[in-house]
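Retry 2 of 3 after timeout on previous attempt. Resubmitting structure tokens to design endpoint.
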């Protein structure tokens, strides 16, 4: 997925420039979603030592910016039911 040219993969860094998180987003890969209106958040990954520092929220805001820049009005994602931490992050960020 990272090598796909239609996907964006921005990263978030610590003050010293060390990468602590990444976002992968782009056109939806499910055929039942309208690719002209939908933009998919494929992954937000944050290293455990950076949890609780706003990295996930910053990456989520970047997703919203990328979706708007692509002219998409709908953001979509999948999240495992057991992943309460991730669900909390998405809920906090709308």
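Retry 2 succeeded. Sequence:
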């Amino acid at each position: 997925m990272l090598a796909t040219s239609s996907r964006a993969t921005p990263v978030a860094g610590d003050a010293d420039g060390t990468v602590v998180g990444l976002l992968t987003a782009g056109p939806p890969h499910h055929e039942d979603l309208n690719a002209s209106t939908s933009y998919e958040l494929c992954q937000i990954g944050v290293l455990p030592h950076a949890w609780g520092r706003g990295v996930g929220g910053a990456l989520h805001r970047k997703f919203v910016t990328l979706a708007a820049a692509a002219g998409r009005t709908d953001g979509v994602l999948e999240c495992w039911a057991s992943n309460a931490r991730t669900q909390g992050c998405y809920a906090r960020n709308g």
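Attempt log closed. Strands lie at 11-13, 19-26, 38-46, 74-77.
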